[in-house]
Amino acid sequence: MSILGNRVLRREDPKFLTTGGVYGDDLPGVGALWATFVRSTMAHARIVALDAGGALDRPGVVAVYTAADLDLPPVPAGMPGIPESMFRPVLAQDVVRFVGEPVAVVLTEERYQGEDAAEAVFVDYEPLPTVVDPETALAGGTLLFPDHGTNVATDFREPLDEHFFDDCEVVVRQRVINQRVAPCPLEVRSGMASWGADGRLTQWLSTQAPHSAKDALAGLFALAADQVRVIAPDVGGGFGAKIGPYPEDLVVAWSARAQGRPVRWTETRSESMLGLVHGRGQIQDIAIGGNRDGQVLAYRIDVLQDAGAYPAVGAYLPMLTKLMAPGTYAIPKVSASACAVVTNTTSIGAYRGAGRPEATAAIERAMDLFAAEIGADPAQVRRQNLVSKDFFPYTTATGFTYDIGDYMGALDLALEASDYAGLRAEQARRRAEGGPCQMGIGVSTYVEITNGLPDAGEFAVVEVLPTGTARVYTGSSPHGQGHVTAWSMLASEQLGIPMEDIEVVANDTDLVASGGGTMGSRSLQAGGLAVHEASMTLVDEARQLAAELLEANPDDVVLDKIEGRFHVAGTPAVARSWAEVASAAEERGGLRVEHKSSPSGPTFPFGAHVAVVEVDTETGQARLRRLVAVDDAGTILNPLLAEGQRHGGLAQGVAQALLEEVRYDADGNPVTSNLADYAMISATELPSFELVSMATPTPVNALGAKGIGESGTIGSTPAVQSAVVDAVAHLGVRHIDMPASPQRVWQVLQDSASHKGSE
Amino acid sequence: MNVSMHVNGERREYDVEPRTLLVHYLRDVVGLTGTNIGCDTSSCGACTVLVGGESVKSCTMLAVQADGCQITTIEGLADGDQMHPMQEAFREHHGLQCGYCTPGMVMAAVSLLVEHPDPTETEVREGLEGNLCRCTGYHNIVKAVLAAAQTPLASAV
Ligand code: FES
Ligand code: FES
Predict the structure, then answer these.
(1) pLDDT tier at B132 (50, 70, 90 boundaries)?
(2) Min CA distance, B68 vs chain A (Å)?
(3) Nearest CA to A540 among A564, A513, A552, A558?
(4) Which of A109, A547, A588, B91 has the least CB density, counted as fewest CB within 10 Å?
(5) For B100, which residue in chain A has the nearest alpha carbon?
């Protein structure tokens, strides 16, 4: 019987539950100095004077370094097309561009000493005009990088044909804010660097991608690739924000070399809220047109992306938003335009969904607005416009080819599981009763792209040792996803070796030769696939060898996966175990297969969500009552893990719709720079989720699997936002921006009431 | 200044700066790094331990305030190789992913069951409001705590 598809409990758990993991800050770090960063308190200013003198006298202080001490070049943006003049200096040089930007590092013997001493570093700032709002940045009155001549970092703008909506009976336009949010992995950034006597750098990083960090470090220090080792210890969540490495990591490595001692750092949460990248941050102008019978004919989206102070991944998110613009719908004409600008804020990077939630939020809002305009049911309008399941592979108006899907099937499942008709009846009753607490129903459908990076493959090694146990080396970089369990399931399935006898090795560039890391919902379809394929090849090789040992024709030899032994078909009594075959293989270099998977392209998971929200019309308080989620990620390897990914994604999606927002005042001072001020979602703000299973295997890879890491986030945000609007739609409300905080909902209700009153 | 306490049943005594937080005493001085730190505003609960049987965010307390107290951390919850029912329930119901919130969450959950031996879902959610998790969406944590409540000794320490 196959183990695949079973709810196998995690092998990772006992350690975390009994002694806790070993995260960056848990490393012993014997003899290491502590690094503490002095950070800019101004959003935009010239550094006129920087005096570390006061700090050097403080107890335990070994050194203070500033940009003037560092002989490191600025960090390339890591993305093509971003002008060099916008590259980020490792420590701020002459000018600071956001609050929290590191300007100096203090090295001390003890952790507490660093905090004391950092306060004694004197920095004199001469304030410069600050740009916080992306539209102001676009206008260009104040430039962050005067040499570049504009605040525009990336430009994917396309003009709109003036006749674009000519054949539409109805056109609805809306400005939609997809607000800036903080990824908030529960573990902040942490790490340590140590140089060997041989000039080799070992760096521990809380990262999702050790191998690319290794390449970056090697590049920066002009070292051969084998002169750098990166180890990711246990990593307490990443969500896209720990793809790194960060400038602080580079300073830590540089300082360790300068001091000839290991140097470590762990930021505080307040530092993390400013230093770790933020996500989203788009202003979207949407326009949707169609006929009164419900058919959508044309859709246009204009994206203005806030890239933050130093453009990186965030400057490329609107590309994905553009490409995913039409979502699940067969819209004849789609036009998308985008550009990204720099502002005096924390840089925007990848955050769970990265570019796709923004696209989905926009098109789903558009569908709702269109439905409201023509007085139709939003679920019905969606059904009318979804891409039919008969048309896959389906090439969209923006040029992506969706592998396979059944969007109507997903929507129907979600409507049925939520009892949509019953919900509408209850809503009508409550509206008729006219009480203060009103109910809203939100429907979303989504499709997203996973494993969309140019290099879609992943590296794996599978080996069987003379003990009869196996080892899997993976280039995926687990940090909570459960790859140890999942990859040992995949190997066990092929090898017939019990999971507990399979060791999974990851997150160390000395042990694993290469890797793409874990991001973009790629791991199973890239890294898992590599393990699956390598295991199959290994069985083939072992069968050849077993045939020699059995003096049989290889074609006649089979692997008994229950016993883990090779024998000639029909004569199981004479057999060779894995241990025997692996021992025999010793002199030929062992039983070992190295492999890189090469999936033919990305996959496009899809689904439909229904949210039920209650809004207190007197206080503006919106509460999520139910969330029904259909998420189709193809064949599911381990439902327990897949559901966990969906739960986490759903919660983060709900958080954006209802609660979370990174805010700055007009001078660029952050007002949500710790977990007391930032409304990170807690257990009380969520219901238990209602998950509905649906699995349409993809033809793109042998596992039939698509990514599941980000789906929940992408589908839930628009469903919940839509439910809030729907709860007060009968009071004349068409749109409420996220997050639907009590204050904002209350304000919209007041405006709508006064608007009605003046009619 | 001299601070002594019983940590997971063992007497520990060290000289520390008066301003040392309990969480740093446990992690950096005693060397029990299972208890984590997730914030600097007493918001996340990653640092939750039991002090005299009651759950406390160990970043909100000075080590000297715990002088003479009985402390239980995640490392002291299992009985030898036998996991505590709450630990078992978290494993059985996939109540953890990256594991960072887990030690604090488990300790908070144990203490919650002391107060509410047979809690409703709402009571569990409210009881864990001060413990943040970014990975699980709380769904399986709540499920685990409700399941643990149905096993004997889930609130025992
Ligand atoms: S570290 Fe104690 S509450 Fe966050
Ligand atoms: S499991 Fe990662 S924060 Fe809870």
Answers:
(1) very high
(2) 24
(3) A558
(4) A588
(5) A236
- Rounded to an integer, what distance in angstroms lies between the CA atom of residue A364 and that of residue A372? 12
Cα dihedral A251, A256, A258, A260, rounded to 10, equals 180
Instruction: Tell me if A591 is assigned to some domain.
Output: yes
* CB atoms closer than 10 angstroms to residue A47: 20
The ligand placed nearest to the CA atom of residue A481 is: 2
Tell me whether residue A164 is in a domain: no
Residue B25: CB within 6 Å of ligand 2?
Answer: no
Residue A124 lies in a domain: yes
pLDDT, position A758 = 62
Neighbours of A147 (CB within 10 A): 9
Can you give the CATH number for the domain in which A664 is found? 3.30.365.10
* Residue matched to tokens 């954006």: A656
Helix (H) or strand (E) holding A424: helix A420-433
Q: Given a cut of 60, is residue A94 above it in pLDDT?
A: yes
Residue type present at position A586: E
How far apart are the C-alpha atoms of A449 and A468, rounded to whole Å?
Answer: 40
Query: What residue ranges do the domains of chain B occupy?
Result: 2-74, 85-149
Measured distance CA(B87)–CA(B102) in Å, rounded? 9
Q: What is the pLDDT, as a whole number, of residue B155? A: 72
The whole-angstrom separation of Cα A24 and Cα A236 is 9
What CATH superfamily classification does B2-74 receive?
Answer: Beta-grasp domain (3.10.20.30)
Reply yes or no on whether the pLDDT at A759 is more than 60: no
Mean pLDDT within B114-136: 97
User: For the segment B58-112, what is each residue's pLDDT rounded down to a tens digit?
Assistant: 999 999 999 999 999 999 999 999 999 999 999 999 999 999 999 999 999 999 9
Tell me the pLDDT tens digit for each residue of A156-167.
999 999 999 999
Q: Which CATH architecture has domain B85-149?
A: Orthogonal Bundle (1.10)
Question: Is the CB of A234 inside 8 Å of chain B's CB atoms?
Answer: yes
Model-level pTM? 0.97
| φ and ψ at residue A255, rounded to 5 degrees | -65, -40
Distance A72 CA to ligand 1 centre (A): 35
Tell me which residue of B82, B156, B142 sits closest to B113, measured CA to CA: B156
Note whether A688 contacts B143, CB cutoff 8 Å: yes
Tokens 């979602």 found at:
A681
Structural domain count, chain A: 3
The answer to whether residues A264 and A365 belong to one domain is: no
pLDDT at A79: 80
b/e code A359-372 from CB counts within 10 Å (16+ = b): bbbbbbbbbbbbbb
A754 pLDDT exceeds 90? Answer: no
Kindly tell me if the per-residue pLDDT of A755 is higher than 80: no
Asked if residues A4 and A489 have their Cβ atoms less than 8 Å apart, the reply is: yes
Give contacts of A 700-729 with B, CB under 8 A.
Answer: 712
Q: What is the mean pLDDT of residues A350-356?
A: 96
Rounded distance, CA A267 to CA B134, Å? Answer: 18
- What mean pLDDT comes out for the span A195-209? 97
Q: Give the closest residue to A368 by CA, choosing from A726, A611, A712, A656.
A: A726
Q: Are B48 and B11 in contact (CB under 8 A)?
A: no
Q: In what helix (H) or strand (E) does residue A231 lie, and over which residues does it extend? A: strand A228-231
* Residue that the structure tokens 């992690």 belong to: B27
Q: Is the CB–ligand 2 distance for residue B134 below 6 Å? A: yes
